Amino acid sequence: MNALTLDPGLSTDALIRDLAAHFPADRLVTDRLRRLAWGTDASFYRLIPRVVVVVESEEEVQTLLGVCRTHAAPVTFRAAGTSLSGQAVTDSVLAVLGEGWQDARILEDGAAIALQPGVVGAEANRLLAPLGRKIGPDPASINSAMVGGIAANNSSGMCCGTAQNTYRTLRSLKVILHDGTLLDTGSDLSRAVFTQRHKGLLDSLLALRNEVLADFSLTRRIHDKFKIKNTTGYSLNALLDYEDPIDILAHLMIGSEGTLGFISEVVLDTVPDHPHKATTLAFFETAEIAARAVMELKRTPVAAVELIDAAGLKSIAGKPGLPKILTKLPPQGTALLIEVHAETAEQMNHQIGLLLVAMADVPVLEPVRFTTDPSQRELYWKVRKGLFPLVGALRQDGTTVLIEDIAFPIRYLADGVVELQGLFEKHGYEQGIIFGHALEGNLHFVFAQDFNSPEEVARYAALMDDVTDMVVRFGGSLKAEHGTGRNMAPFVEREWGRQAYSLMVRLKNLLDPDNLLNAGVIINDDPEIHLKNLKPLPVADAIVDKCIECGFCEVKCPSAGFTLSPRQRIVGWRELSRRRAEGVTVTAEDKAVLDDLAGAYDYAGIDTCAACGLCATACPMGIETGALIRKLRGAAKTERQRWIGQKAADHYDTMLTATRLGLRAASMARSLIGNTGMKALLDTARKIIPALPHWRSTMPTASKAKIKTTIRDEIVNGGVVYFPSCAARTMGPSADDPDKDPLPVVMERLLNRAGFQVFYPNGPVESLCCGQPFQSKGLDKQANQKLSELEKTLWWASNAGQYPVLMDTSPCAFRAQTAGKERLQFVDITDFLHDRVLPNLKIYRKEKAVTVHCTCSGQKMGNTTKLKALAAACAERVVTPAGVTCCGFAGDKGFFTPELNRHALRRLGKSLDADITEGVSTSRTCEIGLSEMSGIPYHSIAYLLDRCSTPPEGLAED
């Protein structure tokens, strides 16, 4: 079965018109830029959908399927798009999960969990962690992958093996079939109704089961195939493992990649998340010796054994925190990342002893030492999980990076590694690396590939033919856990044999007779489908050229699902760069396409990017899409805009004075006409002057802080230079805020109370700035000018760097720490309050519950834990809202592009219960949007610490 296109008698316009009758316009994506952006996933394929539909409920999925049946339009369902084999892209209708699929319900005190398909795997584990449980599947992409994809691909991962994968831990599921029928296999009523109305389907499944049971060789074939990891084709083991046809149907859905039905919920049995863990990197002279160690370890109570070959180790050699032996390994040196889990420390130590005894006769390059240090263990796993993208970072620009995923019976592991290395050499892939879940005989191999010429495509095809022959000869699987997709569809019959493949085709025809569901995936008659629709990765900008479009960044992005995510911004910019570089404007139509893409990118790509940099924290290669956007903003500035920027930098004190006057005038006007009136007034005024800001109901008042140094009598903890940020110097609390003092006043009071002498920069503070407002707009020259001016002033104020410089706003601290050139001790407010101030205060825990928002800069500085600790010192309960990363206020974007802020915080209010009456953060502008969107006041953490270090009424200060 090939991928179908729309019925030629029915146009795309007709399809969209019919969809528009059921779906709101903002959830039908038809513009060229966003369809292009949705046409990519983590694989090396690209198919641009005719329309993208954002679905929010089971009823909407049923409606969508009905419209698509009418138009003979295949539909592909997509969750996070981290799939690696091309199963989440289509040139027909792409159905993307919206906000309505994120329900998670813990069952039986954590023994099971019900999850909708939009829940990120790591979020499920976060909910289960207090109960000492987790879901079984643990793919490397778990921080980004959603449950829908985890189930549809039968994900496994590092520790779960074949015993705890999605198939084995499935208790029940809800599935919508091609005709819109909804079946809940966990409901007796739903099962009874389905049995009555779909007797023919269930009888056919039983007939297939009986047919397989009657064929001894086929039965043995299926059993053998699923003794190892295997996601090639369909889960035929369901026909053997279950007698009830509904249970067979449920387990056929697992690993079906959306080709048999849409999974709208799964109930998974959970597994223990043992509290005691120890990890080591063991080094061996060759892969064969490492494989011998794996065979010995297989008989021990080991949780995970990950193999990394010589090429993979070379790619990580020299990274901070890793063993020094990495820089002096022999040519074929191989490592095993080994981990044990246990309920108690004693059990863990016992298991380590058993492992060391088992490996005693296997020569190692240095003694094996386990670590229980969480940071060291996390580093080992972070490196292992990042090997795939790391190869992407090392590849030549303009090429793509491929990851293949095979498994052998473990007795063939050593032979498989050696032969695979030989195939790399034979076909000219000397830079390829091999790693994987050795305990399960599961190997991933990664290599860079140029698809820009027929010769290179042929080279890749020849490699895959040889790999297929090798895997078949060893009785292995061509896809152990990454799914068949389009990548392995031509090879399913070769791996399984004609009889088993014929069974899969019959299952597809039975459950999707119109070939409506993810057509072209798993079952495909085109023997070269894996060589078609290959994704271009043209050179666009050095900042992002190494991106492989894996999508790990998207969970951190405040604009994902609104306009574009970081991955999609890169896709769009690559296409624009390609068209401009190739001069694809030879016809009026070409020029119109380019103009359309560029015009749409101005808003979706540039204007609505927060440029917060959180995407880099989720990217294994540290790619910051925000840096590209800031560069593009700078390049787009006109000479007049640059002149205005320079004038603002040169006369910064005047600009701040004007800001305060504006805030003062706004406060007076608000007192007369209220928030509603102010919003209406500014909305009307912007029609004449578009550059005016939007009104926010939590707009700050003008700050009345006076900045000057006062010598104190009792100084016990030395001096600190305090530099109040521009926002702190201009913006006071909002009119409705119960705390009326501006932040600099609160900070000085708090610092004095803790025994510090507070110094301020010499001279006129008003003209000083770290440059952050200029940097965010792409005005790097002016940003660096302001930071340099600040550093010169602070150098004298700090007595040539003797005193630390305290910044009360995290974005300013981060910029000063990362871009500063003088030898100054720039310290963020969270660090200083936690490390230096809190130990010198007597705290009175006054608050019942507070919520914490760690800014993007704070997260990048690693201050989330400290901020929570400060809040916990003052409140009985501290809440971090789920689903909130960057607030999207982004300096002043909350005033000029407020829709970004509102989208970023759309889940905030739902995450806060009635007990929470206050929020804390470390950026005044972020607090404006947080306060408005939550309905409770957000302040700097300094306010909470100041209040809770003051004795309660009636109690004297010690």
TrEMBL record:
4Fe-4S ferredoxin-type domain segment(s): 536-567, 599-623
Pfam families: CCG, FAD-oxidase_C, FAD_binding_4, Fer4_8
Protein EC: 1.1.2.4
Cofactor(s) named in the record: FAD
Iron-sulfur in keyword set: yes
GO biological process terms, semicolon-separated: lactate catabolic process
Keywords tagged on the record: FAD, Flavoprotein, Iron, Iron-sulfur, Metal-binding, Oxidoreductase, Transit peptide
A GO molecular-function descriptor: D-lactate dehydrogenase (cytochrome) activity
Every FAD-binding PCMH-type domain range: 45-273
InterPro entries hit by this protein: 4Fe4S_Fe-S-bd, 4Fe4S_Fe_S_CS, Cys_rich_dom, FAD-bd_oxidored_4_C, FAD-bd_PCMH, FAD-bd_PCMH-like_sf, FAD-bd_PCMH_sub1, FAD-bd_PCMH_sub2
Similarity-based family: Belongs to the FAD-binding oxidoreductase/transferase type 4 family.
Protein name (database record): D-lactate dehydrogenase (cytochrome)
